[in-house]
Predict the structure.
Amino acid sequence: MKQIFSGVFESNGKIFTKNLVQGKQVYGETHVQENSVEYREWVPWRSKLGAGIKNGLKQLPLKEGNNVLYLGSAEGTTPSHISDIIGSEGILFGVDVAEKVMRKFIELCEKRTNMLPLLSDAGRPENYAKDLEGIEIDLLYQDISQKNQAEIFNKNASLFLKKGKSGVIAIKAKSISQSEKPEKIFAEEKKELEKQFKVLQQVNLAPFEKHHCIFLCEKK
Ligand SMILES: C[S@@+](CC[C@H](N)C(=O)[O-])C[C@H]1O[C@@H](n2cnc3c(N)ncnc32)[C@H](O)[C@@H]1O
């Protein structure tokens, strides 16, 4: 295993995180043992952040002990890898509006005690501001299919992210418009993000996800 980012490893073209909860799979991923350490494969076909890493993300602004606000946590596939990286000293707050996926996420939070569920609309961050009181967020991450993706991200950033902290957002062009070219939509979303962030990198996610990109940002 070769370390490529803090807590992220590569072997034979595949990426891995160290399993925080020994012996437990989250989404059917393969486990590999090396020198008594259990690694979980991070499947880029199942995780946009995994796809971003495979496609050349230059930095992953995450390390042990970090606090993460994750918008669109769904059943916890990508959150589980972030949970591996931040370890037991960090916390991931997972926001999702859908009760069905939140039920699964809560089950996962029972096993991964560094993740906390927030059933809420990410477009109304004031509704969970009390839950985050006194917590310094190191990374704001978003993956939700809405028309105003960058606007939701900015709203959350203005409440919870200090200057110099990091943001990563996955943009799904087809949720914004079925007819516009994805490149045009990405450029418009980037402009919206630049109201609050310095955009450091844009990574397209094909072939893992069509018409998607990830923006790596730093709060201004
Ligand atoms: C593509 S899935 C996220 C997958 C997840 N990020 C992963 O990689 O494991 C998008 C999620 O966003 C949630 N979502 C959509 N609109 C939302 C909103 N306004 N607030 C919070 N969650 C929302 C959906 O319920 C869905 O679970």
User: Anything to note?
Assistant: Residues 47-48, 71-72, 74, 77-78, 95-98, 101, 121-123, 143-146 surround S-adenosylmethionine (CB under 6 Å). The helical segments are 48-54, 77-86, 99-111, 149-160, 173-176, 182-193. The two ends are 36 Å apart (CA to CA).
